[in-house]
Write a structure and sequence with these properties.
Blueprint (H helix, E strand, L loop, with lengths): L5 H9 L8 H11 L4 E5 L5 E4 H17 L7 E5 L4 H13 L2 E4 L6 H11 L3 E5 L1 E2 L2 E2 L10 E5 L23 E7 L7 E6 H14 L8 E2 L6 H8 L1 H5 L3 E4 L4 H11 L5 E2 L1 H8 L14 E4 L6 H9 L3 E6 L8 E2 L6 H6 L3 E2 L4 E4 L4 E5 L6 E2 L2 H7 L6 E9 L5 E6 L3 E4 L2 E4 H8 L5 E11 L3 E10 L8 H11 L9 E4 L13 H11 L1
Length: 511
């Protein structure tokens, strides 16, 4: 893990941003304070309705069963589940045991899941028998000591002797390992401590508008922000949990009017897909009071459109590594909320490098990566994190993201590594060279566009042929290129490196 300067540790502890609480202790207190708060899963295949007490009962029985099988503080517990009750039970059980939890996005394929399980070597892994494209594959977890499959044998892990209390754990140690795509070929394992995750949870809970209403959580709980919003903040706040396992704008609109559920933001696509749906009416606006937007690029056209409809918009900027770097408070002036990504949050410091790259540090910054070489490359000895994003600061300290150094595509809030996609493309017959860039997407912000240089006498593959190849490779469908372009050669630098900015310019001209 990275070395955190002693003066930062002292400051974070003195200010109360870092405490000695573990995530298990935070959860236990919150659950004891509000046991009767509703917890519901709105699903066509696995609906569920109960209370925090009911979910905690399952979590404590699971914790007891895992403990009987040798799982305890310092171990890791991984799960790959949709937004179901069992995902909450696994997360809460792991925290109560003092184990580090490893959420895996439910639509990740064989390649990603195999890499993650090999990287963290969990003591236990819980997944689903089947959901959409997710299918239990026993060979991937053959070396995991404890495996549970929802829909098959999950209940066999539940002990008749529930765990009482919480097991002690080091609050400075790992509580969460979240995997995210980036510029590397494989997902990056981001390690958060009880202290960094605890601060992030308390900070977000305090920043949300008090009259935001009962929220519908559609972001996958395998993602950092979906997990925090579903399993941590409601417990601290004593507010209901409402999950949906598939984003269907029409169904979301029915849940809003039928159950009084509110949509509070996320990646812009979640909000714009509601406004663009034929079932949307002005009556739905009373369930869209606020729109906190982030997770992908936030076009000004979207923020101004929402503001004209009377929705109170504010933007935020962060990453899995540093979840909350800046945000416009909901009380900030409208121009700051609509046109900037906010100013630094509690304890956070930001500065710009000579090339405009954003550097950040703060009490919610992760401990580092599971890959020590990546940790050494991204963090410096003074505690600064190199974000890979480019920005500008105005005279009031408000940040606006203007570009990206990293070779990354953000599709509807999902990070896609161009390098990872290029590796799969290069295995297609006849492909001599491949380059993948971000292309504008009216719904999702960006999608992957592929440029291929073919070997002589080899035709460029069709989209259907490319999709079949990616299906065979086991890469998540969200990462598949959505357009293909053939080039005779690539624009290059003097050293031969592909000039991807020119490929992006070419796409802009075509569209």
């Amino acid at each position: 893990m990275r070395k955190i300067p002693a003066e930062l540790v002292e400051r974070y502890e003195t200010e109360g941003w870092w405490t000695r609480d573990t995530i298990g202790e935070l959860l236990a207190r919150g659950l004891a304070h509000a046991p009767d708060v509703p917890f519901r899963v709105h699903s066509a295949v696995r609906p569920w309705s109960g209370t925090f007490r009911d979910v905690e009962g399952t979590a404590r029985r699971l914790a007891g069963g895992l403990r009987e099988r040798g799982v305890g503080p310092g171990d890791t517990v991984a799960f790959q589940l949709p937004n179901w009750m069992e995902a909450a039970a696994v997360f809460w059980a792991s925290a109560l045991l003092g184990a580090a939890v490893v959420p895996i996005v439910h639509f990740y394929g064989r390649k990603e899941v195999g890499y993650i399980l090999n990287a963290v070597r969990p003591r236990a892994f819980v997944t689903a028998e089947r959901f959409g494209h997710l299918e239990f594959q026993p060979d991937l977890c053959a070396d995991v000591p404890v495996v549970g499959v929802v829909g098959r044998d999950f209940d066999e892990l539940l002990s008749d002797a529930p765990l009482t209390g919480t097991l002690p754990a080091d609050p400075t140690g790992p509580a969460l390992i979240a995997f995210t795509s980036g510029t590397t070929r494989d997902p990056k394992g981001v390690v958060h401590s009880h202290q960094t995750l605890g601060h992030e949870t308390r900070q977000l809970a305090a920043s949300y508008p008090p009259d935001r209403g009962d929220q519908l959580t559609a972001a996958p709980v395998g993602h950092f922000i979906g997990m925090v919003n579903a399993f941590l903040i409601p417990v601290l706040d004593g507010t209901p949990v409402n999950l949906t396992d598939v984003w269907d704008p029409g169904r979301a609109l029915r849940l809003m009017t039928g159950h009084g559920l509110h949509i509070g933001g996320g990646a812009p696509y979640y909000v714009t897909s509601l406004l663009d749906h034929p079932d949307f009416t002005t009556d739905h606006l009373r369930f869209m009071r606020y729109a906190g937007l982030g997770g992908s690029s936030v076009p000004v056209a979207v923020t101004t459109r929402l503001a004209r409809l009377g929705i109170h918009v504010f933007r935020a900027y962060g990453s899995t590594e540093h979840p909350s770097i800046t945000s416009s408070r909901h009380s900030a002036p409208e121009a700051k909320r609509l046109f900037t990504d906010g100013d630094a949050l509690s304890g956070v410091e930001i500065r710009l490098a000579e090339d405009g790259e954003i550097l950040s540090r703060g009490p919610d910054l992760c401990l580092g990566y599971t890959d020590p070489a990546l940790t050494a490359r991204v963090f410096d000895d003074e505690g600064w994190y190199r974000t890979g994003d480019i920005g500008v600061l105005d005279e009031d300290g408000y940040l606006t993201i203007t570009g990206r150094k990293s070779d990354l595509i953000i599709r509807g809030g999902e990070n896609i590594s161009a390098v990872e996609v290029e590796d799969v493309l290069l295995a297609l017959p006849g492909v001599a060279e491949a380059a993948v860039v971000a292309a504008p997407d009216a719904r999702l912000g960006e999608h992957a566009a592929a440029f291929l240089r073919m070997l002589p006498e080899h035709p460029v593959p069709t989209l259907d042929e490319m999709r079949a190849h990616f299906e065979q490779a086991g890469l998540a469908r969200q990462k598949w290129p959505e357009e293909l372009h053939e080039v005779e050669d690539f624009p290059r630098t003097a050293s031969g490196k592909v000039q991807k900015f020119r490929l992006r310019q070419d796409i802009a001209v075509r569209t």
